[in-house]
Amino acid sequence: MNCEPPVRVEDKLYYNRYLVDVGHPHVKVRAHTTPSPQLLALLKVCPARCYELNDNGQVEIAVDGCIECGTCRVIAEPTGDIEWSHPRGGYGVLFKFG
């Protein structure tokens, strides 16, 4: 029987490093007054919790923690709620296994 304590996702994400491409985010949220159901879903399904509501009730993203999993791309890009592209070379998530 395995007696090791369970590992939380947040603890594993801590090992990753991010090289932020200032001024060139690879994910952008479309301007909106009321968030769509797809944008609201991103608040719960993003494993890195990059999406949050601002004081005006609009969805914003902080790309400096993005693990580039593509979940937001599958949910919100087809509806036009976000623009997603690969980060420029050398930028983005730097995975560290351990």
Automatic annotation (TrEMBL):
GO MF annotations in UniProt:
iron ion binding; iron-sulfur cluster binding
- Please name the Gene3D superfamilies in this protein's record: 3.30.70.20
The record's listing under SUPFAM superfamilies reads: 4Fe-4S ferredoxins
At the top level, the lineage of the source is Bacteria
**PROSITE patterns in the record:** 4FE4S_FER_2
Task: Specify the 4Fe-4S ferredoxin-type domain's residue ranges.
Answer: 57-87
Keywords associated with the record:
Electron transport, Iron, Iron-sulfur, Metal-binding, Nitrogen fixation, Transport
Similarity comment: To ferredoxins from P.putida and C.tartarivorum, ferredoxin I from A.vinelandii, ferredoxin II from D.desulfuricans.
Job of this protein: Could be a 3Fe-4S cluster-containing protein.
* PANTHER family xref list: FERREDOXIN-LIKE (PTHR43082), FERREDOXIN-LIKE PROTEIN YDIT (PTHR43082:SF3)
The protein depicted here goes by the name Ferredoxin-like protein
Please tell me the species this chain comes from.
Bradyrhizobium nanningense
